């Protein structure tokens, strides 16, 4: 027994030695990578001058995609991409940290999106309103802005769409934060004995149809947060909570039903806005703003163009235009980059049919 | 010229190729490190059983210190340590993510401290009050708690000290977030023409003495945040802002005077609390709680013990005891670990002189 323990400990010591050696190699490579990044910056400054863009969204998207493709584990694609995002963020900050304005306050999902996209070496500053984010980017006091564009509970963020009407800024990226909800039970709770479901009001709303179908007579009690709902359920035998994975893990609750949100793609989407256009990354999206004359079949004629060019429209939203009482403005996302001839032809045709058209930007499809 | 440009572009392509190769090597090493960490976990589970502690604060502190010692740059020690914290966090989460309760809400400095210490792969959950953090750790629903212990503006967080009186939890680490304030001016502002200083009320308070000495007659105007103060100053010729580096960089303001906070070590300190003792890391601190009989010279006798054993006392705070009307409780931090014979001898002596003594824990001195 003593000998076995000794053997085990020797193994542990060996493993730790191995980890230390790996760490040394990692550190050397990280500094080499940082040196290369510095050289890239020097070359770019020499050719492009003072106004050089060190941050290249399309290049970063390509690097992350490649990393995820060739990943063998045991680290998951998500964790690996997150680590490399931080590495790129640290290398970039050596030259000059990226400055980012986001819709605050601190601690919101928009901050989370900003950090997910730019890494923790970026300087991220909260703004009080969406149009302030636009203004800071336009004024050049920050490099990029991060604003929410659609949200499963609140729908489209119309402030953001409206800000685009008056702005010359370009979309240079998107970030998607996925949110999944589960029905969580304590260990000894029987699913057929539930009389109360606790959750935050917005989560109860997100899962309304599912609750109607599966627990129609059950009382729904709003709580200050999903985490508190989960905690409450720990000690109760006849209640359940709706909350995410984190709360389930934290309180050791069973997931009786997973992903019960009514919209299968329950997520909040954010846009990165900047002053520059972004070259194609190989997997891109293009966002447009179009206004139509108020005549029968106008919308159909619009959609027909996308269909004929076999361009996949991923989203369409309409907003009342500010300029004319009867005009509508459509915000459209489609796959493809405005550098592609196929998209260029389609855009030209759309421009002829629309009263007004503005390309808000082509940008890499959100990685992860 | 065209040829030079071509040459430059070829260089860029070469550099990017080099970065891609470095990234591939980095990725391989990261997955190898994760595999080693998995093997460590297997060995530990085999010898220590179900209740194994995978997270070892003293080991992590050692790894980070070594990384900072041998760092050659260009990445700074801080950035390098941050990257490795994330790597360790990701490797650890493969086995089982660490669960951490912190004093919420989200977006506070305490969350920042939790993420700085445990990395972004940990599950961090906000609690509404300090004693809730203690309760969650005691109940075993989380592995660790993060609570503020001292804050330059509010002083010691007495709630945290009081919670230790009733708790059997151990301190297993500390995190320090440093906060520096500067006097910031717009490019064309003359320092001798300033009539107004803008800043958040707590920053104005933190720099009160400095302002009294250097700008006695100047109006102090509180703002909702330091960032807004900095922004306001951009457009004004006769005003200055007090804010940190981030705001200075963001708004391109000059630092007319740096580190003007009255306490030179302006920082917020947080404690990591857990259920286990932490072995020595080589550079440790020990925290004690002592109550003295209310007799003349009691405090002096206490301090004499530290002095005689040449143990460096880094902090002392007194709180009224809850048990007797005339007793005081002292919270003392000193350098050294309770495993060291020198500290053990001193603790034994202190225990004899004190009415009551509790060792709150020995833990690695905060890295960074």
TrEMBL record, chains A, B:
Gene3D superfamilies assigned? 3.30.70.260, Chorismate mutase, Periplasmic binding protein-like II
What does the record give as the reaction this protein catalyses? prephenate + H(+) = 3-phenylpyruvate + CO2 + H2O; chorismate = prephenate
- Which intervals of the chain form a coiled coil? 12-39
- Which named protein is this? Bifunctional chorismate mutase/prephenate dehydratase
Q: Which SMART domains match?
A: CM_2
Which residues are in the Prephenate dehydratase domain? 99-275
Q: Which SUPFAM superfamilies match?
A: ACT-like (SSF55021), Chorismate mutase II (SSF48600), Periplasmic binding protein-like II (SSF53850)
Q: Which PROSITE patterns match?
A: ACT (PS51671), CHORISMATE_MUT_2 (PS51168), PREPHENATE_DEHYDR_2 (PS00858), PREPHENATE_DEHYDR_3 (PS51171)
An example Gene Ontology molecular-function term: prephenate dehydratase activity
Q: Where is the Chorismate mutase domain?
A: 6-99
Q: Which N-terminal residues, if any, form the signal peptide? A: none
Query: Which Pfam families does this chain map to?
Result: ACT (PF01842), CM_2 (PF01817), PDT (PF00800)
Keywords associated with the record:
Amino-acid biosynthesis, Aromatic amino acid biosynthesis, Coiled coil, Cytoplasm, Isomerase, Lyase, Multifunctional enzyme, Phenylalanine biosynthesis
Give the ACT domain ranges. 287-364
What compartments host this protein?
A: Cytoplasm
Might you give the EC number(s) for this enzyme?
A: 4.2.1.51, 5.4.99.5
Q: Which PANTHER family does the annotation name?
A: PREPHENATE DEHYDRATASE P PROTEIN, PREPHENATE DEHYDRATASE-RELATED
Tell me if Nucleotidyltransferase is a UniProt keyword of this record. no
Function according to Swiss-Prot or TrEMBL: Catalyzes the Claisen rearrangement of chorismate to prephenate and the decarboxylation/dehydration of prephenate to phenylpyruvate.
Q: By its UniProt entry, which CDD domains does this protein fall under?
A: ACT_CM-PDT, PBP2_PDT_1
Q: Which gene does this sequence derive from?
A: pheA
Quote the pathway field: Metabolic intermediate biosynthesis; prephenate biosynthesis; prephenate from chorismate: step 1/1; Amino-acid biosynthesis; L-phenylalanine biosynthesis; phenylpyruvate from prephenate: step 1/1
